[in-house]
Design goal:
By secondary structure, this protein is of the alpha/beta class. It has a domain of 114 residues: Sandwich (Immunoglobulin-like). It has 13 helices and 21 strands. The strands form five sheets. It has an eight-stranded parallel beta barrel, surrounded by four helices. Strands 3, 6, 7, 8 and 9 form a five-stranded antiparallel beta sheet that branches.
Amino acid sequence: MTGVINRPLQSVEPFSLFSSGDIALFQAGSHYRLYEKFGAHTLEYEGVQGTYFAVWAPDAAFVAVMGDFNQWDHYSHTLLPRWDSSGIWEGFIPGVEAGCLYKYFIRANSGEELFKGDPFATRWEVRPKTASVVHPLDHTWHDKKWMQQRKKHNSLSSPFSVYEVHLGSWRRPDPNDEKSVYSYGEIAAMLVPYVKEMGFTHVELMPVMEHPFDGSWGYQLTGYYAATSRYGTPQDFMAMVEAFHAAGIGVILDWVPSHFPHDAHGLYRFDGSHVYEYADMRKGYHPDWNSYIFNYSRNEVRSFLLSNAIYWLDKFHIDGLRVDAVASMIHLDYSRERGAWEPNELGGNENLEAISFLKKLNETVYALFPDVQTIAEDSTNHYGVSRPTFMGGLGFGMKWMMGWMNDTLDYFQKDPIHRKWYQNDLTFSLVYAFSENYMLPLSHDEVVHGKSPLLYKMPGDDWQKCANLRLLYGYMYTHPGTKLLFMGASWGRLPNGITNGSWTGTC
């Protein structure tokens, strides 16, 4: 890696990627391509090669870029605030090239000093390291055939069967080492033919955005614009998406616009103030996940999230977004005791700002990418989650049918001799099966946190467990709605590989 010319400040006149129109859209909550402006962009300016940096830190008194190119000095390369009071700090640093590590040194107006990763970084160091990496997203795509035919594959009138996968634990090079993982390329070589052979039409990847803690399975994000470096580069991830497309399989990403962790290098109190999260912890703190909730009333935050959704569809050719924890976004009293939340201006429990954002999100996604799907994980009876916004709905393409999942598992866990008294658990879902565009999920939520695999939930001996599981899947695949199975649920594996004659211990 080459060094940077040793200059205390920028060596060229101030330079910006932002137009006045960009600022207006950013502040209106309507900019959906901020990734083309913020972050680190390698370019040539006035004959000089370098990198342009831009970061939003409205309550900062001083911002500088520190990295391996200046020995992590706090003051060598300062950024300048824009004249328009947008809160954006920017600057061009000569000599900084792809592969350089960096962070932002921020001194808040309060005097507090912070060391933050770039919210728009396209790549981060492999955990537990936390620096951002200057990394262009150059890639030549070879999935034109898929993209031209995607509308047919993604249609609600076409078969839609989803295999949900966590890339880090689907398979491991060393089963006894939880830190042992395959690369994106190695995963693709094994996973693509498996998904194809099993007859799934789509794969849903649990969050691949950068996150510091393996145990979160990606649901506590710090790098919203970066495919995690655990398995390789962003281009390696793009190649994996291409491999799925070449096999005729769509790729859905879990997306988490509902909350983020308090890691020191992340979004929380980014410039010493509550920039991305609500300042009122009755709205800004999530008690279940010890994390913080985006401020959906702040237009700049709305632009950040809106751009992030479009980013994955645009730059990575993703075919759908499954939006995590929608219920927690749209309800002020979600998982809160009486007195721990404040009603909205109409006296209700809805987060009107989050509802407004989700409508804007879906309108924008379907306007730009009409052949993709957005899927809401929502466990409530909120009206019209998968209905168009002009009809008062949220505008999603699909909604998880959590009621069906709970009722069905309750039914199948009962001994068959008692089931005749609980037939309503099977029939009730048909009362409302066509009120939304439902997806039937038997997801990771049913096995995490000490919950048993689906096979172990079944009653009876080993033979009966397998028979019950086959019956459950038969019922699921004949019930109205699209389907989703979590990895491992597609084959029933009995404890210790029990055998019974010609039966080898799998269902």
